[in-house]
Design goal:
Blueprint lengths: L4 E5 L5 H7 L3 E5 H5 L3 H14 L5 E3 L15 H18 L3 E4 L13 H22 L2 E4 L13 H11 L4 E6 H6 L14 E6 L16 H10 L5 E4 L6 H20 L1
Parallel strand pairs: 1-2, 1-8, 2-3, 3-4, 4-5, 5-6, 6-7, 7-8
Length: 262
């Protein structure tokens, strides 16, 4: 029985440290990469190649200010943003791009929710076109209600994928966001083959996993194995001390995975 690939949500400057710690991949926010400028980006890409650690998963497909729902939606701005982000994701060698984009999923005060859902569905159809063109799959990431107004539950993301019948769009699940919306880990089984990516952390403060933090990571890995999940698992927490926190998180997640296989 193979081990899951375990990665970490990181900053571009964390490549070497994540590689030394032993992560299988890193998960980058494209907005962080774009902010580097071309020269710095090229240096980072070379560093990833040197360490054999790649951004297999990326997020941040839209920059701040690009709306996908509400009266300010601009097809031109959406396509300009997606041209840039999918081109960069492809250059990084990413296999999956997550739809997170909290700001873009908040409804303006005068929005009609029904119209907003139609706009959201249209946007997801656009993502299917880009995913096919750039050969980078898209996973819809549900976010807690305090962060986004649309798509707060993994079950909603699965329903969207099923109804739209798009072969390049699936679901990403965050155990942190699931816990805040009272979705239990066993509900992941209902996603079946639509579950393409998983993130996890300590729910209390979205902190890096560590022994005795009250989270049942073994249950997460056991659930994923029972549903024959074949994707990746990322530590999504922000590390105060990357070297120390990321190393402890990886060791604890690997331990929980071994126990889930026992």
């Amino acid at each position: 029985m193979e081990s899951f690939r375990i990665g970490i949500c990181a900053k571009p400057g964390d490549v070497a440290r994540a590689a030394r710690i032993g992560y299988d991949y890193i998960e980058l926010d494209l907005n962080d990469v774009l902010a580097l400028g071309e020269d710095a980006y090229r240096a980072m890409a070379a560093e990833m190649a040197a360490h054999g650690l790649y951004a297999e998963v990326v997020s941040g497909m839209l920059p701040p200010g690009v709306a996908i729902v509400g009266p300010e939606v601009s097809a031109k701005r959406i396509h300009e943003a997606l041209d840039r982000s999918f081109d960069l994701a492809q250059a990084l060698g990413a296999q999956y791009m997550l739809l997170d984009c909290e700001e873009a999923r908040r409804l303006p005060g005068d929005s009609d929710p029904a119209q907003a859902w139609r706009q959201f569905g249209n946007f997801v159809r656009i993502l299917q076109t880009y995913a096919s063109r750039f050969d980078v799959n898209v996973a819809l990431l549900p976010l807690r209600r305090s962060a986004a107004d649309l798509m707060n539950y993994a079950s909603e993301a699965a329903l969207i994928c099923s109804m739209l019948q798009l072969d390049r769009v699936g679901v990403a699940a965050s155990s942190f966001n699931m816990a805040l919306e009272a979705e239990s880990l066993p509900q992941l089984r209902r996603l079946g083959s639509l579950l393409w990516h998983v993130r996890t952390s300590n729910v209390l403060g979205n902190l890096p996993p560590k022994p005795g933090d009250g989270e049942d990571y073994e249950k997460l890995f056991r659930t994923l194995r029972e549903m024959d999940y074949r994707g990746r698992v990322s530590c999504e927490a922000q590390c105060a001390n990357f070297e120390e926190d990321a190393a402890e998180a990886l060791a604890h997640l690997r331990r929980a995975e071994r126990e889930a296989r026992a």
